[in-house]
Amino acid sequence: MAPDAVELHKHRPKNIERDVLFELGNVEAAFVEADLVREGTYNCAEVCQNQMEMHAALADYDAVRDA
Description:
By secondary structure, the chain is mostly loops. The protein has one helix at about 25-35. The longest helix is centred in the middle third of the chain and has 7 residues, at about 25-35.
């Protein structure tokens, strides 16, 4: 995101993969009803409950067959 950073992909300005904002429910009403409100900025990894792609691979080299 630095001003002089190399742009990795033309379709990803400032090298940001995605910028997501979720607001679920009535936030203002929840603040009014809450006993304690603590505000901050939190960065959390994206979660997907059903990953179908491989995240690892295993290889076994057979020296006898050179394969």
